[in-house]
């Protein structure tokens, strides 16, 4: 049944009997397991780039001594592994920051400003990929003000747009829309990328899950981006929907209550 119980017994001095208590500690045990798994996954993910850095530092030293042509290349490899560690730590910190965090810090922001600030953080990737990004806002307020937890929604949008840019083997074309109805805001992000096979669609929101590592645009991500998105949206009492067609692209919908 995957249940854990703590059994304790007490002898009563005044009476010839024993009290046996059975305490359900499943929640604590499961939490301990999640924590242990998380730490072991984090260590495992950090170990690979660190091992690479170690190896290439030795190779670099030899190359410098022998004055051969590999120096520049080894520096590049070391640098990309350092970037990987940097990204992993950024994601780990964000994940622990938002895990179970239900307090909302609501304020008004213009939809355009939200998107521009999010895209600004992705400038390098957008330019590298030569991506085309279109936006569309259909909002009640004529000045496009929305009332949200800006920091959290920005991180959700950043992770979704970043994925839309990365998981594509052609020039990315991304549509970002913000819509609203009486009760909710809807953030819609569509790409023309690799698509996500049907059997993977639930799994990609799990911690550290990555679709087949042999996919063409294998990017050294942490596998935490979408779990951060899920954590934030669930704590917001919102929902995420996903439609996708292999080879044609994906659309993520984030729906949050007003
Ligand atoms: P990461 O990007 O660090 O691997 P994520 O949790 O953000 O981790 O995504 C999990 C996996 O889901 C990715 O490895 C990728 O295979 C797949 N994925 C996410 N977004 C998209 C997308 N827009 N198009 C195709 N595949 C995607």
UniProtKB/TrEMBL annotation:
Enzyme Commission no: 2.7.13.3
Record carries keyword Protease: no
Gene Ontology process terms (BP): cellular response to phosphate starvation
UniProt keyword Transferase present: yes
Record keywords: Coiled coil, Kinase, Membrane, Phosphoprotein, Transferase, Transmembrane, Transmembrane helix, Two-component regulatory system
Superkingdom of this protein's organism: Bacteria
Histidine kinase domain segment(s): 41-258
UniProt GO cellular component terms: plasma membrane
Entry's Gene Ontology molecular function annotations: phosphoprotein phosphatase activity; phosphorelay sensor kinase activity
Catalytic reaction(s) noted: ATP + protein L-histidine = ADP + protein N-phospho-L-histidine
Protein name, UniProt field: histidine kinase
């Amino acid at each position: 049944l995957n249940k854990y119980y703590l059994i304790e017994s007490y002898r009563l001095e005044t009476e010839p009997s024993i009290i046996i208590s059975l305490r359900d500690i499943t929640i604590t045990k499961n939490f301990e397991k999640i924590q242990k798994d998380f730490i072991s996954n984090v260590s495992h993910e950090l170990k690979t780039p660190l091992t690479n850095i170690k190896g290439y530092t030795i190779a670099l030293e030899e190359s410098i001594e022998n004055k051969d042509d590999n120096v520049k290349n080894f520096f590049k490899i070391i640098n990309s592994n350092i970037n990987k560690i940097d990204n992993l730590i950024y994601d780990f910190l964000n994940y622990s920051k938002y895990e179970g965090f239900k307090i909302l810090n609501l304020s008004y922001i213009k939809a355009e400003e939200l998107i521009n600030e999010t895209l600004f953080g992705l400038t390098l990737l957008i330019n590298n990929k030569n991506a085309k990004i279109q936006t569309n806002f259909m909002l009640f307020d004529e000045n496009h003000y929305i009332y949200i937890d800006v920091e959290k929604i920005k991180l959700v949008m950043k992770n979704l747009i970043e994925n839309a840019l990365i998981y594509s083997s052609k020039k990315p074309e991304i549509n970002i829309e913000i819509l609203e109805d009486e009760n909710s805001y809807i953030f819609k992000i569509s790409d023309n990328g690799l698509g996500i096979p049907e059997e993977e669609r639930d799994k990609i929101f799990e911690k550290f899950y990555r679709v087949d590592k042999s996919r063409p645009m294998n990017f050294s991500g942490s596998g935490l981006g979408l779990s951060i998105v899920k954590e934030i949206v669930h704590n917001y009492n919102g929902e995420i929907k996903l439609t996708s067609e292999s080879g044609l692209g994906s659309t993520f919908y984030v729906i949050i209550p007003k």
